[in-house]
Amino acid sequence: MRMIDNIVLPSAGSGRTLPPGHIHLGVAKEIPPTLRDFGIDPDPVIREAGLDPGLFEDGANVIPHGALGRLLALSVARTNCPHFGLLVGQRATIQSLGMVGRLMQHSDTIGDALRSLVSNLSIQDRGIVPSLAVAGDTALLGFSVYQPTVAGVEQISDGAIAVAVNALRALCGSEWNPTEVLLPRAAPANREPYRRHYRTPVRFNQETATIVLPVRDLDLRIAGADPLLRAMLEERIQQLKGSPGSEFADDIRRLLRTRLPSNRCSADDIADLLVMHRRTLSRRLQGSMGYRAIANETRFEIARQLLEGTHMPLVEIALALGYSEASAFTRAFRRWSGQAPSAWRSDGRQG
C-alpha cells in the first residue's frame, strides 16, 4: 500500500475487475446501522438475505447485486419503512464510493467529477449504471439499475440518488440543492422524507432515477483538488479496468441500460458510439448472445421494471423503449413473456 496525503492507493496487484452483477459494499455498508436505528438486530436479516454479517465490516468486500436487493427488501419488511433505501443513502458519503469518490474530490470541476463517476463507477458497482446528459441549460445525472428485476430495485435507486446528492453537496457545499429529483417508483404515501433530504421538488413514476441540476454547476471548481493525486487515482483506476474479467457483452448491456430510454440504439448506433465497425461489434459478441437478443433482453427488463414499479401509461413505456406505437410494444412484450403488458402489470399488483 502507498499512503499519500491520507489517500491510500492499493498496489496494482491487489485489485480485480468486479464480475458482472456484483458490487463492493460501499454504500450498502450503511444498512446495518440503519436497521439498528429501528431497534433491529441486523445480523439475522443479513443472514436471511444469504449473506455473512461479517462482510459488512469492510466496505471493500464484494456481494452479488441480487443479494443487496433481497437485503433491502427484507429491511423494508422488518422496519415497515418504504423509504429504507433513502435512509441508507442519506447515511453514506462521497467516501462510500471508494476510489471513484476520491477521484471526484480531486477533479477540477463538478462536470469532471460527474464524468469520472459515469466512466469509472463500474470498478465499485456493477449493479448501477450512471449517465450524464446535457439538454439546453439543464444537466441530467441518471442512474439505472442493471438488473431491474431484482428484489428491492426501488430501494436501490433511492439509495443511489441519495448518496449522489450527498456527494454533490460534499463538492459544491452543504447548501447546494438540485433543481429537482426524478424517481422510477410509485409515489409513497409519505413524501416528506424525500423532500427533507433533497430540499427540492421530487417527481415519482419516472423512467429513470435522475438528479436535475443547472448546467452552469458543471463548471464549478472543486476546492482542494490535487492534480498529482488525481493523476495517480486515474492511473490506478485504469489498471483496475484493464484487468482480465471485463466482459464485453456485459458492458453492452450496461450501455443499453442508460441509452435505451432516450436514444437510438440500433447495432450501428452502438458501434458508432464505441468507434468500431458493426462487424467488429458482432465479432466481439461471439460466444454470447447477439446484439439484437441483448437489446431485446434489456428492453424486457426495463419494461418489467416500469410496469411493476411505476404507474406510467403503456404508451409512455412504449415510447421510452423506442417503439413508435403502443401496439408494437404490446406485440414484443407478448413474445418475451407470453402475456400482454397490461396483464403482467395486473398480476404484479396482485402479487
TrEMBL record:
GO MF entries: DNA-binding transcription factor activity; transcription cis-regulatory region binding
Pfam family, one: Arabinose_bd
Signal peptide extent: none
Keywords carried by this UniProt record: DNA-binding, Transcription, Transcription regulation
InterPro entries assigned to the protein according to its UniProt record, in alphabetical order: AraC-type_N, Homeodomain-like_sf, HTH_AraC, Tscrpt_reg_AraC-type_HTH
GO cellular component term, pick one: cytosol
Gene3D superfamilies the record matches: Homeodomain-like (1.10.10.60)
Protein name (record): AraC family transcriptional regulator
Species this chain originates from: Microvirga ossetica
